[in-house]
Amino acid sequence: MIETEIKSKALDEIIGSIAEIAGYIWQKGWAEKNAGNISVNLSDVINVPLSDSTSYPHNELPSAFNVLAGGFFFVTGTGRRMRDIAKDPMKNALIIRIDDNGKGYNIISPSDKKVLSTLRPTSELPSHLSIHSMITERDSKQKVVIHTHANELCALTQIPEFCNEKKLNRLLWGMHPETKVFIPSGVGFVPYIMPGSAELALATVKALKDHEVALWEKHGVFAIGENITDTFDSIDILAKSASIFFTCRSAGLEPEGLTDNQIDELGKIIF
Ligand SMILES: [Zn+2]
After folding, report:
1. How far is ligand 1, taken at its centre, from the CA of residue 60, in Å?
2. CA of 128 to the centre of ligand 1 (A)
3. Which residues are catalytically annotated?
4. For the segment 50-63, what is each residue's pLDDT rounded down to a tens digit?
């Protein structure tokens, strides 16, 4: 249920898209148990002043997110499964409003006390808000952050040779022409850091300054985009390239890959 005060056709459409993509992430096998999380900046969609912010439950944040003050965000719930978010997003996710001083947030939805009693934002909320702060500061149109465990991309980072940003991107671009066309900046590689740590959040923000996708060694992917469908597509395209690599290797063959000249030529295509 979306609360009446913030309800709009645009919000309904975004929530519908999130549910659709959460289903695809589950079908892809990228979301075992409660793996993965999604956040979307809704500040352009929810622009009604709240009648009384003190009537909503309030939580503190571990650090201040001044840039996001007064902003509204969709965030998936901690421990919630992607397959359940697909079925009923608003019973497995929340809409929060960041305080005017950026130090905490009100939970705007759900308002149903029974649903809310077991629902908290993803434990990766500080990482998501750090990324949204970076995006907002540079005045980008990007609104969406997805974290997921894309199998083939996780598998690549189990191979020491590819725990190197240059080699990783050379491999991914070489496996299919459209990877260079649609992901021209490639992926940012983040060496293994303890999940949920402030250090990992910082490293992810750094990687996403120059890329739309960051690959966490031996863990998964963080991707940003203007809408949830395009953000999912970026991960899907990269996963396809990694999958082609492993298909060749599984057959006992060494994939040849595109040449440097072919990759450079693809990089000049402008849409
Ligand atoms: Zn994860």
Report:
1. 23
2. 12
3. 124
4. 767 777 899 999 99
